[in-house]
Design goal:
Blueprint (H helix, E strand, L loop, with lengths): L2 E6 L4 H6 L2 H9 L2 E6 L2 H8 L9 H17 L16 H13 L4 H13 L8 H10 L11 H18 L6 E4 L3 E4 L4 H8 L4
Parallel strand pairs: 1-2
Antiparallel strand pairs: 1-3, 3-4
């Protein structure tokens, strides 16, 4: 049985655009998933990337066009300049970590519930009430937004170190069985083919 380490960022538009397609692929092939939220800006800094705000204007323009096209291809609404971005990804990430430990809900749905609020619904995912609503939507106890902050901070930092060691450099990033790497929501089809033994 294959295992996927899923590195993602709750503020990443490409994590939003992944929706729950990776989870569908994993279920199809019986693969397990370990969800690893991280600070993608710190990951850029550690792996040779550049913060979106500091990129050349041509790269900024291309990014916005690509987001628009990818959203259209996946039939997903998107606000290319959301009111609450960038925002602090730590609170939503800590809550996700607490939910993963607590169980009882749908983790893929939780990733999507959080990122959708940022990229399609003009909500600030650093705010407790927004996080609680996302938790509840995905079947988790909304009170998890208020627990496990220290443990969440430690795991959040550890996920960054693990991502660097695993060769991840963006989000979403999927690593199968510690070796095969797929960067970006537009590589989920390739992930599917790989798990099927066709790549």
């Amino acid at each position: 049985m294959a295992h996927i380490d899923y590195y993602f960022a709750t503020v990443s538009p490409y994590t939003y655009l992944a929706g729950t397609r990776m989870e569908v692929v994993a279920a199809k092939h019986g693969a397990t998933i370990a969800y690893k939220p991280l600070d993608v800006i710190a990951l850029f800094g550690r792996t040779g990337g550049i913060k979106p705000a500091e990129r050349h204007e041509s790269r900024k323009e291309n990014r916005l066009q690509e987001l628009r096209r990818q959203a259209k291809k996946n039939d997903m609404p998107i606000n290319l300049q959301p009111a609450h971005w960038p925002t602090n990804p730590a609170p939503s990430s800590y809550a996700f970590i607490a939910a993963q430990k607590a169980g009882g809900g749908d983790l893929g749905a939780l990733v999507h519930a959080i990122t959708r609020r940022c990229w399609a619904e003009e909500q600030n995912i650093a705010e407790d009430d927004v996080i609680r609503a996302a938790l509840e939507e995905a079947g988790f106890d909304p009170a998890l937004a208020d627990t496990g902050m220290l443990a969440g901070a430690e795991e959040y930092a550890a996920n960054l170190e693990e991502a660097v060691a695993a060769g991840a450099f963006g989000a979403p990033f999927y690593v199968v069985d510690g070796t095969e790497k797929f960067w970006g929501q537009d590589r989920i089809g390739d992930l599917d083919l790989f798990l099927a033994g066709k790549l």
